[in-house]
Amino acid sequence: MIRVFIAGVFTLLVGLLSAPTWAGIIIEVTKGQDTGIPIAVIPFHFQGQQRPNENIRNIVSADLYRSGRFLSLPPGDFLSRPSDPDQVRFKDWRLIKAEALVIGRVSELGNDHYEVSFYLYNVFKEKLLAGYRWTVGSSQLRQVAHQMSDYIYEALTGIPGAFDTRIAYVTVEKDSSNIRQYQLMVADSDGHNAQQILRTNFPILSPAWAPDGKRLAYVSFASRTSGAMIWVQNVETGDRRKLLQEKGTASAPAWSADGRRLALRLSRDGNHDIYILDVAASRLTRLTKHPGIDTEPAWSPNGRYLVFTSDRSGRPHIFRISAAGGPAERLTRAGRENAGASYSPNGKHLVMVTNQGNGDQIGVFYTGNNEVKVLTDGPLDDSPTYSPNGAMIMYATQRGNQGVLAAVSADGRIKQILRLHQGEVREPAWSSWKQ
Amino acid sequence: MRQIFHFSLVLLLSVVLVGCAANKKKGSAEVEDSSVNLQADATSSGLSSDDSGSVQVFTTTDNTLDLEDPLGTRVIYFEFDSNALTPEAQRIVEAHAEYLAGNPGMAVVLEGHADERGTREYNLALGERRANAVADLFQMMGVMSDAVRSISYGEERPVAMEHDESAWSLNRRVEILY
Predict the structure, then answer these.
(1) Stretch B88-116: mean pLDDT, rounded?
(2) Considering only CB atoms, which chain B residues are within 8 Å of A380?
(3) 3-state helix, strand, coil in chain B (%, to 5)
(4) Which residue in A22, A51, A179, A392 is deepest, having the highest Cβ count within 10 Å?
(5) What is the rounded average pLDDT for all residues in chain A?
(6) Which part of the chain is the OmpA-like domain (chain B) (predicted)?
């Protein structure tokens, strides 16, 4: 507990002292839990001439720490440093109260390729839980480390890890002429390997990952008279196209889980309603027809329902409608307003932006008993997005009068701030697992 | 030392911003670049459109600008969560409607905006609602609909950056851009 606190304060100090020059990616754990699985991740044995730039063991340790479910024991406490199964003496690990043990090796194969292997043990049962071996180029070593973290996380918690995933987000900076420049960025979910997908001096909003993880839909503007439009861009090839040829404005794209349909907000006759686009057939079907503002559609994981935001009953609230059409059912009643809802990956609850009198906060809505559990402090929190395993929610917030991303565990016990960029950061979207 | 400098800088900026806010309340001080020049100018439309290559700033001592003339006012403001035109807004919109109805060659873009509270997508729609409220009044007063384009930037292009009601009230607006 003290260690987590000190680590949190340390990263905070590093962040402060480094201002105003950009200090690089910092993830501050602002609220950690004090009961995690004590795990010893032994520094990996390296065989070869040229060490790779990436330290696999450190990336794994950071992943597990960030999940808030592990207490990573410090290497200074280790009584031995095994890297092979036959070197493991479980007594050494029971003595320092480790419950899990990770050992591994990295071998240089030449031609910028490496072999990476690991073993995960349950210390008390003296049992091998997981192991894997990869042969990859040096550019894939970070990804290997995240895949390793996913194996370890799942073996010890029963839930798939979400470390080998990506996030999209929007940054805003003023250029030398004091004009706002927007960037759509894609990075690993720990903030590394950030790449620019789009740069424009028009606002960018609502990035949405296609389920295949290769395309992003987003909202931007073509010109000073165009109004909001949806684009779909392949993040690997850079290929981009406007989604619709419509006179009205379009925004709030949401992919169905099978990637075949896109729900969106369209204002054809000056009215804001939800439409569904069949991507292959290029066929648009109207889902809602109401003079109020209907926007922010989100699919249930089974594709049968959509939730959306509507102010048809006064202030914005969350409604649900069958994907086949029909009447809309109001879901949220409590709070001044509720908006921006999306389903948890297991389809059992919604995360949304809720105003309970304390500004905009992120909350989880339980459809069963209509309860809202507020997870964040607000007052200007927005854009919640679930990790694909449902364990974490990333969202946009303000820190020191600047937009930053933050993450909170689904049960509210773990909180982090992600400092990814020197300008404003907003609009996070968490991808599914890499395919 | 650096902290004291930063603090003073923040203080100075706050004073400057408060000063600017007072001028903006008149409705036209920051938009005067397009009110002086009635031709469609692709590079200027007030503080919000900083996609232009330069931001043109005119001083309020410009004699050709009459701040009491509703046609010289290019921004109207709204109550929270509302797209209803206040009586003051209506007066300004009607003046522009008369001008447009009498000058069929002129075209106008109505840019709707919202304050930062609430989600970005909802605010995008709310801004458009506000622009449409002005467009509807234009149409009622005889302006041809193809002379008017209504768009919205939601909360994306605020003119005031603070997180309080005085800033929010300046951001809940429609800009009338020729």
Answers:
(1) 96
(2) 116-117, 163
(3) 45, 10, 45
(4) A392
(5) 92
(6) 65-178
